[in-house]
Amino acid sequence: MYFETLAIHAGQPPDPAYGAVMTPIYQTSTYAQKKMGEAIYDYARTANPTRTALQECIAALEGGRHGLAFASGMAAIDCVLRLLRPGDHVLASNDVYGGTYRIFKRVYEVYGVSSSFVEMSDLDAVRAALRPNTRMVWIETPTNPLLKVADIAAIADLLAVADGIRPLLVVDNTFASPYLQRPLALGADIVVHSATKYLGGHSDVVNGLIVLNDDEAHARLKFLQNAVGAVPGPLDCFLVLRGIKTLPVRMERHSANALKIAAWLESHPRVERVLYPGLPSHPQHEIARRQMCAFGGMISFIVKGGPEEARRIAERTGVFALAESLGGVESLIEVPAAMTHMSVANSPLQVSPSLIRLSVGIEHVDDLIADLAQAMA
Ligand SMILES: *Cc1c(COP(=O)(O)O)cnc(C)c1O
Predict the structure, then answer these.
(1) Is residue 177 located within the same domain as residue 251?
(2) Residue 289: CB partners within 8 Å, gap ≥ 6?
(3) Sequence-distant (≥ 6) Cβ neighbours of residue 110 within 8 angstroms
């Protein structure tokens, strides 16, 4: 079936108990067993029906065999990193979510898992940065907050012919969502999501997801999901399932609004540079056109006048709320260097303090442009 149909129905047949059309919130920690050990569900950390529906739904949307749900995007990322062992190395994009950088450097390095960062749009640089002990390549595309685009298929090909053990290719697909980009079909091994963002879509839930095809890796991750226990509650799973139903229509509007706003910003005299994969001026625009079916709702831009001017603009908008996070129906504005990306300050991943990031919502685009115009006047 088509994506729009799967978004509404995958993993969600009418409930077997009473025929409820919407997947019920199974708010219970335990399940009565008919005979000892004879039960579909026994304990809610191990599995619960609302979570099963979400896991099957996201697997269908990413075109993968297995889905796993977690209490947050970071919990999902943590679970994937637990596939590594002391002595292993992760090669990651040189522009990643601040929390991802932080877990690599301040959590996993302590356990002997090293990480380094490379410009993923430069294939020669990626090839040169691979080490004999590189067991994982970690891509964000588009990246947060610089909206760089990596060619997933080209990197998968590169890894296939590299010497030694082929590293796992992991893609954090949070910015694109599976509606715009499906990394498994392009050769990725594992997809992770902060479902807190576009999948949930309404800024009302924190959640994380993993999708993959490999049965063995899935068995290990499923074991870890239960053994470590960073699982989402059933209400959280319900909220993400409800959000996903409108993902296709929301992503269309996010993308259409963002494309108009990006073009408007590019012609604004007080803007130095606009970073949006949908603009022909974007250095990886052609890759984005090939790999994504639209360009998403995230825009970053650098203003003339320095950090003070960036701060003034971010504090003067009315419709755009000054807030962290992204991917909800409402528009948000922030200055990454002072907000979401403080954890990369004084690191090689540091971002310009004059950079403003927009999460363009699905309000009327003319109201959004008018709001930015008055804030920048
Ligand atoms: C927000 C985010 C995360 C972390 O997800 P949480 O749900 O906040 O734990 C990971 N990757 C990207 C790209 C994000 O934007």
Answers:
(1) no
(2) none
(3) none
Atom in ligand 1 nearest the alpha carbon of residue 207? 7
Which of 80, 96, 194 has most ligand 1 atoms within 8 Å of its beta carbon, as the pocket-test mutant?
Answer: 194
Domain final position from 198, 225, 244: 244
Q: Say if residue 171 is in the same domain as residue 257.
A: no
By the 8 A CB rule, do 117 and 96 touch? yes
Q: Which of 141, 148, 174 to mutate to test the pocket of ligand 1 (most atoms within 8 A of CB)?
A: 174
What would you report as the CA-atom Rg of the chain, rounded to the nearest whole angstrom? 21
Task: Identify whether residues 222 and 113 lie together within a single domain.
Answer: yes
Residues 285 and 187 grouped into a single domain = no
Distance 279 CA to ligand 1 centre (A): 25
User: 122 in the Ramachandran plot: left (φ > 0), alpha (ψ -120 to 50) or beta?
Assistant: beta
Instruction: Measure the CA–CA gap between 170 and 264, rounded to whole angstroms.
Output: 34
Q: What is the pLDDT of residues 156-177, one digit of tens each?
A: 999 998 778 899 999 999 999 9
Query: Range of 285's domain?
Result: 247-375
Q: What atom in ligand 1 is closest to the CA of residue 75? A: 9
Gap from CA of 145 to ligand 1 centroid (Å): 12
CB of 74 closer than 6 A to ligand 1?
A: yes
279-304 per-position pLDDT tens digit: 999 999 999 999 999 999 999 999 99
pTM (two decimals): 0.96
Number of domain units in the chain: 2
Digit-coded pLDDT (tens) for 98-129: 899 999 999 999 999 999 999 999 999 999 99
Q: Would you tell me the crossing angle of helices 234-245 and 49-62 to the nearest 10 degrees? A: 40
- Which residue among the candidates 41, 42, 45, 245 is catalytic per the annotation? 45
72 lines ligand 1 (CB under 6 A): yes
Last residue of a domain, one of 244, 261, 291: 244
Please name the residue ranges forming H helices in 63-204.
Answer: 73-81, 98-102, 123-129, 152-161, 177-180
